[in-house]
Amino acid sequence: MKNTSRHDAWSAGDSYDAYMGRWSRLIAERFLEWIDVREGLDWLEIGCGTGALSYSILARCDPASLIAVEPSEGFVEAARRNVPDQRAGFHVGDAEILPIDDSSRDIAVSALVLNFVLDKQKALSEMVRVLRPGGAVAFYVWDYPGGGVEFMQSFWDAAASLDPAACDLAEDKRFPDCTQERLIELADSVGLEEIKSAAIEVPTIFTDFEDYWHPFTLGAGPAPGYCLSLESDARQRLKKVLQDCLLQRADGSIALNARAWAINAEVP
What we know:
Mean pLDDT is 92; it is low at 1-11. The chain has a single domain, classed as Rossmann fold (3-Layer(aba) Sandwich), CATH 3.40.50. A seven-stranded mixed β-sheet has the order 3-2-1-4-5-7-6, sandwiched between helices. It has helices at residues 13-35, 52-60, 73-82, 120-129, 150-162, 171-174, 180-189, 209-213, 222-229, 232-245; strands spanning 42-46, 65-70, 88-92, 105-111, 131-142, 193-206, 254-266. The protein is of the alpha/beta class. It starts with 12 loop residues before the first helix and ends with a strand. It is 40% helix and 23% strand.
């Protein structure tokens, strides 16, 4: 998994957790409800981030073991802190060349990271390789092309109103493959069978505007990376535009939604 934008800064686990981790934890629960697998399996997780899905797998699915592979050393360190479970092992590694034996896992999952992988087909082929016959591959990505992550889309809309070049940095332009149709095609291209797909949605409720704005100033992710790259005056103008356009409820909170597309399929 490799980043190609100068605005992508994913190494700081704590900053990412403030920006996306809290919503990742919510959607992880919904995803596991949807795939509904039996207990006692050997799991593989690709791109574990700070451990949101890892934690939910261990708490909800009672796995025999979990191996998580993540390219960022900072994220691996954060995941080890966040998920101190002896059944789990967190390793620095690449989704396209998994350091895992053939036919050694029962289920391979990936949460909100496949869009960052340069060769997605190769990564999925690697997941298939390490699974036992009849194993499952399940993954999900944010619906960027459909504007499914409303708090991000609001940020980029405001940024583009001040800097038209910001449009080219937004996730909907950079990750056009995050659609239901394309993900189904991708799963089919590596020989997966019984392919199921669903939209999974979660509310993203911010207590007030500062709760919304602060994570964008921490630099972890494309939008925060862009925000941090701005001069102070430009950043304040962006903040003002956002504050004026976001609808706040009577208690000051901001209620938005986030949607992901999920795939669940079987290895022959």
